[in-house]
Amino acid sequence: MSNRRLIGYVRVSTSQQGRSGLGIEAQREALARFAAAEGFELGRVFVEVETGKGADALDRRPELAAALAEARRLRCSVAVAKLDRLSRDVHFISGLMAHRVPFVVAELGADVDPFILHLFAALAEKERALISTRTKAALAAAKARGVTLGGPKLEQARKNAIASVMAAADHHAANVLPVIREIQRSGARSLHAIADALNARGITTPRGGAWYAKSVSNVLARA
User: Fold this and answer.
1) What's the mean pLDDT when you consider all of the chain?
2) pLDDT tens across 116-163, in order?
């Protein structure tokens, strides 16, 4: 990438987060660290408070539109701390690619091409769908046991179902983390190298699939 300038984009999902600053500074710091480590010049950082859901998400994200416009003017990339700060919807990510403004995702590294970003977006979308499916299955099981799902009980059942899914993921992360640390001590530094090493050892993800940089990143984040 010849132009070493970056336009930053930070997004939080609720107005409460926006008012409290929760998550905003962490994303800013991640972008600053990434730019310093990779030799980029981080320019203006656009901050958005928006859910990002729905087909018209870009229309409801004026700060993202402004970031795209500024990046086009400067002929540089837009940088985000994590891919889900753009969206977890693969179609939305594809639509952004049509603007012909390159994106850099700090947690994935500076050399991830658009095709790989599509793959990571598809994986994130699939993960969201799986959580939704498991939540619905847990609610159906609760109903079959005679639990009345309405009002506060419904909300509690949803929370319990999500907590169960997250607890299983935490348990698996705790089991695989020592292996990741061992791989790191052996010289593997990048997320891709760690994923390759886990796959070579025959270790699977919580859902029995192959490891990718994003899934390794998720485990390290849980640690």
Assistant:
1) 76
2) 665 566 556 556 566 667 666 766 776 677 665 555 555 665 566 566
* SS3 label, residue 173: helix
Q: 23, 12 in Cβ contact below 8 A?
A: yes
Side chain identity at residue 133, one-letter code: T
The catalytic residue among 13, 15, 186, 215 is 13
What Rg value do the Cα atoms of the chain yield, rounded?
19
44: DSSP letter? E
Residues lower than pLDDT 50 in the chain? 1, 55
Cα gap 141→139, rounded to integer Å: 5
pLDDT given at position 43: 95
Two tokens, residue 146: 């005679």
pLDDT of residue 93: 72
Task: Label each residue of 87-143 as H, E or C.
Answer: CCCHHHHHHHHCCCCCEEEHHHECCCCHHHHHHHHHHHHHHHHHHHHHHHHHHHHHH
3-state secondary structure 202-221: CCCCCCCCCCCHHHHHHHHH
CB 168 within 8 A of CB 204: no
Cβ atoms of 116 and 213 closer than 8 Å:
no
Label each residue of 184-206 as H, E or C.
HHCCCCCHHHHHHHHHHCCCCCC
Residue 13 catalytic? yes
> Which is nearest to 127 in space by CA: 56, 49, 212, 50?
212
Residue 9 is predicted with a pLDDT of 95
